[in-house]
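User: Structure tokens for this complex, please. No commentary.
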Amino acid sequence: MHESVTKFIDDNLDNSIEDLKILCRIPSVAAKNEGLEETSSLVEKMLKDVGLETKVHETSGAPVVTGWIDVGAKRTLLFYNHYDVQPAEPFDLWDSHPFEPEIRNGRLYGRGVADNKGDTIYRIWVLKAFKETGTDLPVNIKFVVEGEEEIGSVNLPEYTEKNTDFITADAGIWEFGGAGIDGIQEAWLGLKGIFFVELEVERLVRDVHSSTACVFPAAASRLVWALNSIKDGNSRILIDGFYDGIKPFTDAEIEAMKKIDLHEDLQKKEYGIDEFLNGMTGDELKKAYYGDPTANICGLTSGYQGKGSMTVLPAKASCKIDFRLVEGMHPDDIHKKLRKHFDDNGFTDVKITYFEGYPAAKTPVDHPFVKIVERANQSVFGEMKIHMTSPGSGPLYLFNKYVPMVSIGCGDHLSKAHSPNESIVVENYRKAMHRIVAVIDEMSRW
Amino acid sequence: MHESVTKFIDDNLDNSIEDLKILCRIPSVAAKNEGLEETSSLVEKMLKDVGLETKVHETSGAPVVTGWIDVGAKRTLLFYNHYDVQPAEPFDLWDSHPFEPEIRNGRLYGRGVADNKGDTIYRIWVLKAFKETGTDLPVNIKFVVEGEEEIGSVNLPEYTEKNTDFITADAGIWEFGGAGIDGIQEAWLGLKGIFFVELEVERLVRDVHSSTACVFPAAASRLVWALNSIKDGNSRILIDGFYDGIKPFTDAEIEAMKKIDLHEDLQKKEYGIDEFLNGMTGDELKKAYYGDPTANICGLTSGYQGKGSMTVLPAKASCKIDFRLVEGMHPDDIHKKLRKHFDDNGFTDVKITYFEGYPAAKTPVDHPFVKIVERANQSVFGEMKIHMTSPGSGPLYLFNKYVPMVSIGCGDHLSKAHSPNESIVVENYRKAMHRIVAVIDEMSRW
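Assistant:
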């Protein structure tokens, strides 16, 4: 393999970490529309500095940054990443400032280090290593780095629909991945879809004294009843037709599932639970993990939330809820069904605001590129677990018909993506660079 | 009547308003344990300044301030007030600073002006008027001013149980009251009880990525289901035995109810509603107003509540809820029944924190003091509506067996007690002082 390239990576590890810190210091929170222009410019500059041609594509939202180098090779490898991050709230639960990354005990802490700035930077640095060591790239490279992944890639279709030639490649590496709870590296071949909404009920012009709850309608109770109506006590979703059209697992997927160990006991300990949802275990748990859509309350808000008691009848109540979708479901369809469900059940007073949504997508478990990634990983990390899909979401559906993709990355089960104290292991970050070098190497012989 | 006394009141209106402003500038929020010592000292000083003997009674919480003057009269009149206020949140909904009272268009705005510092100050100023004009008081006077009414008077029993002699009087004026939505003065003869709790569910050691909702338990859903289990879509409370022991209306109460007009159309317009709870109207609405217990969500909290979307599975969810109780119910009993209800329905994971609670109490509608107040009001304001009970709560039960009490005050239907922009009409405040002078006068001939 390319020893001068991997040596350069190791010798310059501090420098690449420094680039990552620089990227993480910009709080590019898509949900707040903060820092996105600035971050996209920085990403473009970094791509240019490692020898790529670049272009910044304006959209109705955050720009999409692309970079490419055509070395005339047989195969082309595409990277998908994003430069936006989740909000860092609640700040007081962070042990260090979310936007001032720092290393403690071999881990780098900061919002975005795992999701997804770490993976973005080390992939750029792999190209820098080829360039600085004067090593010929054996495959053509393309980068697509967007800035609204954390709000559902709402404007990414504006880019992808007009640039299907660019996003066509032999294979691609998706944004994230890493070590599981057992320390073994994991690859994800698919992503669930998502349908994210805010539900709001407003029943009075202002908050009133709670004594009048005997005669006035209560927004918070209306919201509770509406939420209760969409999911039963076993988390079965009660919206009419919600499960219609879901594709069953393929035989290859069922085979792949057999090789997976979800390490139930380790997870129970890690997350402080006595049992999984509905007491699921074994195959049932695996099937839910890969195949179940969800209706999850991300946030609930109403009335007084301060210390002690305040006797108020709140005028309004609201809820943020994300539905994870599997293959065969579409957010627009679920949107219609949710509205109908509320109307049919007397909840015409529940307002739905549609924030983001897209369908699920998967790369087949028996695709040749899956083997390439597996061999590349073997040479750096060793064993790898292949998941037919992540339970998480991403706009894979926009790319998947032009390029089969596998998601791997530098995270691990303690990375706390979307939560306080997000972090990565620096050593995994280093080895993830070696793995990309190995993927490029393997791909050149495909 | 005592014309020199009422003339003094009118001539010194600005001075009494100034005293009220001084009292309101201290944010004596019992829920936050703020400013209570300072406010109690100020109230004691004010009582002393108008010629009363005073005592500050320490409790496990805020001090209880008492003041008295025994002029050797046949009758004794007791005032119950409180110097604490509700939290002023959300501050951004106030048009002026909640703790910097100011007059706009004849209304004085500030947290506590209606509930209950206005009523406290003008009653003290009535005594000042007697003193400054050298007018003999024809009744003995007692004041009990506590500092934890807004958190359920949790420590007031420590005072009342040891001072039953002091709280024994021929009659008493309770803290609040004023003009209804039709502009007519209202007197309240009773108060509902209360049982205020926080419900908490914690199912994970930390917030996690919401994609894992397919396999992890969800605290927010558990809370929704638990809340849904305690009240059906018609607001009927489903806790076993919740309605047991409730006393039916007496014949005198049914007669009194007939005289009441709840001005349904005015209220609908004022609060922006198409109909009252469950479409109630007429006698049914009145019966609910005076006789229904409630289970009201005062606040809901879970997960991400900021702008836009954040896909998180929150580890915790909580809810503040107040139950209003009517005669025959006791908070300790409801507490046991609520715990049993949750346990019986599989919600052993819902933690109940009991914040405050006490039973309901009423003065009979045919008590002679009710007529005295009615006549006094007639001479100042004119007509008066007699309500057998307020839908609101207060620790009347601690006093009621030693002193029959009627609640009247300087508020009105726009006073927004417990809400932003709390206010009183200055002219009502002035006339409320005249009315107390008239009550004293009427009482001296009882």
